């Protein structure tokens, strides 16, 4: 009798736990509305700079809010997960690319939040990762968003592609001062 009562209590406990687990699962299932809403990916100052970048650089591709992991690869032989985790959840405000998607520069628009100690450390990490990849990182202050001319002067130019046709003379690449 004692064994039967113990088994009955155990069975009731299992049924109760199963019902609780089902209830928790149903609260996160697809049959309930998901709590998302659409929000703007760019702040007002970022929108201003985006439109200026597009206008000033018509022969370029301008991308906004790009994850560093989409623009920076981890060199072969290095621990991918360890290094990729250092830049996890970080993004560039803008990437300026040539028409073939070659990255020309990353652009950051810094406001007051970049003065906080945690943000200073995060920005230093982003600066270091970008420099290691050989990508110029341009930082502009929100209070001094550049005009078209300043944008064009700040974005590096691609060297001309050498003519690879047979008998073509080598092309010298010079940097403008």
Give the topology.
Blueprint: H1 2-27, H2 44-56, E1 61-67, H3 68-71, H4 80-86, E2 91-97, E3 103-110, H5 117-132, E4 137-141, H6 148-154
Parallel strand pairs: 3-4
Antiparallel strand pairs: 1-2, 2-3
Walk me through this protein's architecture.
- The chain has a four-stranded mixed β-sheet with strand order 1-2-3-4.
- The protein is an alpha+beta fold.
- The chain has helices at residues 2-27, 44-56, 68-71, 80-86, 117-132, 148-154; strands at 61-67, 91-97, 103-110, 137-141.
- Mean pLDDT is 84; it is low at 160-177.
- It has a domain at 44-154: Trna Endonuclease, Chain: A, domain 1.
Tell me, briefly, the overall form: elongated
Number of helices: 6
Give the class from helix and strand content and strand pairing: alpha+beta
How is the main sheet built?
4 strands, mixed
Task: Briefly summarize what is shown.
The protein has six helices and four strands. It is α+β, with helices and mostly antiparallel strands.
């Amino acid at each position: 009798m004692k064994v039967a009562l113990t088994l009955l209590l155990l069975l009731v406990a299992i049924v109760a736990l199963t019902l609780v687990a089902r209830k928790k699962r149903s609260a996160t299932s697809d049959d309930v509305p998901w709590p998302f809403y659409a929000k703007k990916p760019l702040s007002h100052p970022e929108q201003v700079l985006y439109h200026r970048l597009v206008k000033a650089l018509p022969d370029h591709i301008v991308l906004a809010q790009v994850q560093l992991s989409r623009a920076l690869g981890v060199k072969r032989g290095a621990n991918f997960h360890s290094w990729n985790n250092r830049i996890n959840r970080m993004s560039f405000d803008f990437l300026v690319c040539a028409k073939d998607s070659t990255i020309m520069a990353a652009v950051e628009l810094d406001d007051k939040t970049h003065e906080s100690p945690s943000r200073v450390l995060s920005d230093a990490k982003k600066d270091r990762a970008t420099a290691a990849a050989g990508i110029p990182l341009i930082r502009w202050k929100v209070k001094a968003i550049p005009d078209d001319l300043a944008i064009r002067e700040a974005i590096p130019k691609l060297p001309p592609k050498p003519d690879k046709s047979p008998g073509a003379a080598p092309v010298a690449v010079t940097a403008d001062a």
